Amino acid sequence: MTSGEVRVVRRQWWAWAVVVLVVAAAAAPLVVVWLTNPDDQRLVDLDVYRTGGQMLLEGRPVYDYVTPAPQLLPFTYPPVAAMLAVALAEMSWGTAQWVWTAGIFAALAVTVWLSFRQALRKYVPWVFALLMVACTYLMPIRDQVRFGQVDILLVALCLADCVVKRPWWPRGFLIGLATAVKLTPGVFLIHLLVTRQWRTFFMAAFTTAVLTLLPFAAIPRDASQFWFSALLDPERLGSNKATTNQSIRGMLMRLYLPETATVAIWLVIVAVVGWYGFRGAREAYRANDQLTAVALVGLMAVLLSPVAWIHHLAWVVVVLGAIVGDGRDPVRLRVAAGVWLYYVLPIPWWGVSLKAADIPGVSLVLGKIVQNGFGLGALVLVWLLVSWLPKRRQIA
């Protein structure tokens, strides 16, 4: 945030107070639903984090235990994440839920601000409130609240590391932290290499390495178990064929081809999509469009990963910001509105319902396509950002 922006914020403190109230009122139905449901339906991933921290406090193996029935979910994150989760384990369950949910919205606010700040320069704070409410009801963000997920925090960390002009932290540190906590942000290390941002790359790699090696000194048993056993079992994450897995691999697995064919096709598609996406991110970076570069790399984290649940698509907030730009092109605004609506609707679950309808000649094929709707949509978004958006800038 520039000094001029800071002065505007200070002058409009009353307006920002109203914004907080508006966003809180709009988000309240969503928050209340998921924080007052029975225990087996609320913030189950937060329960996973707390259980990991609790195991460390009790001196028990982190990767041998699961959350209480009926979920019975194992801890699937690197051991440094369990170390960080000790703070959650020290809180009561009720307190942890509210603290974590507040953190989700704080991270969303940072992401929205950094993603849409070009368009916000003349319309702060009221458009910011509108964007916050709109992004809150994107399905990947709703699922952040529903499951108590960490994805939007990782998005905010990587985005801030890339687009803040004069960070007070060493650039690359936040990417390294995010990568150490959940591995998938490691795609940003590839981006930093491709774009030859050597200083940032070395800081990110150094931070990742330190936070990865630290558990071997502090909790060696758990560190060894994760890297040499738990990490190698993708089924610990849940059914890889489930509708919620919208990665390229997940979409292919739902075709029920022979495993060898699935792996071969997956590797080929990953190579092509990875080349196209990282090349597009490099071109965006060279064009001084860091936001589009970040959006593309975030989409790579989803598409190229073996498992990417719907809530991993929190990167769509950054994608929307890249499409909107400065907000002056009506065509880009209409496209952004269409993308927003697409990811608000529970499209993959429509595919499940369509398959269950058993309409001869229609249900199976069309149902599978719709079931993969968010993953296929992410592929279209990659094309939009790489090929369509630069041309649109030239026209505008």
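The above is record 1. Record 2 follows with the same two-line structure.
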Amino acid sequence: MSDIAAPLLAWFDHHGRHDLPWQHAGPGNARDAYRVWLSEIMLQQTQVATVIPYFQRFVETLPTLRDLAAADEDTVLALWSGLGYYRRARFLQRAAQECVARHGGELPRDFDALVALPGIGRSTAGAILAQAYGLRFPILDGNVKRVLTRYHGIHGHPGQGAVEKQLWQHADTHTPSQRVADYTQAIMDLGATVCVRSRPQCDACPLATDCVARRDGLTAQLPSPKPRKTIPERDTVMLVLRDARGKVLLERRGPQGVWSGLWSLPEAGDTDAAWRIAQQHAVIDDAQALTPFVHVFSHYRLRIEPLLFDGATAHPTIADNPHLRWCGAGELASLGLPAPVRSLLQSL
């Protein structure tokens, strides 16, 4: 057993998280591969507390891999709505469909077959094989990177190729042959609850004695931050066309770009263009400028100026366009909507 596995497992037995909803749902109370996989995808760039209600709602509606593969895309995106990074949800469903077509409706136990599926990288494949099947494979998510970076005193941003290669070597060395599922959960838990990004609880850490960052006073400096880049800003006008019954016009976005495939509000580059687009879809009399707000993506900031056209009368040609629909408030829950659009509509 590696030099960190024994103390880490002992810590996990007393302080780790043992009741997460994806941990014990298979035959004989074992971990179910579908649920492990779903949780791993949801937890990418998202905290456990945020993920839990989404996960529970998702598996209540789509309890098996075959259910996910057969589901309507709008259902999948509606269940995902609010988690962001919607590409993850599309890859999830595409991978499920490939599992049905090629692997008998199950996630394969072969590493190469797993990483060949859409949206499954090396760490996610390792987590599925280790936690669901008990096979010895290392993982390297953000929490694990932070633990290993500090423990070994590794400088340089963990996302850089050379640094990441070094971290993978350490991850593999430390992964034990026994209790692999518990070990992978333990090192993730340690990073999430003790070896946190700011103000780590070193006094409660089972690895503190040999941790280079703690010894050298580098816990605030490691992991090294990602080199900063200026985040560009963009502006858009969102058209809120609402008819006398309270229904709002939604437009399905194309296959490319942000929020691809989701139902959203029509957009324009400026107010004049917004009026022209609104008049193409409905008879309108007046518009009210609503309070602008900013939505932050990973690579840019979007400043949104909502423009409300109340009492609009729909042109009949809308019925001929499958990418446009008038929706009442009761229909919104069943559609995949971007989080800021859903919040905007709920505020009206």
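The longest strand covers residues 301-314.
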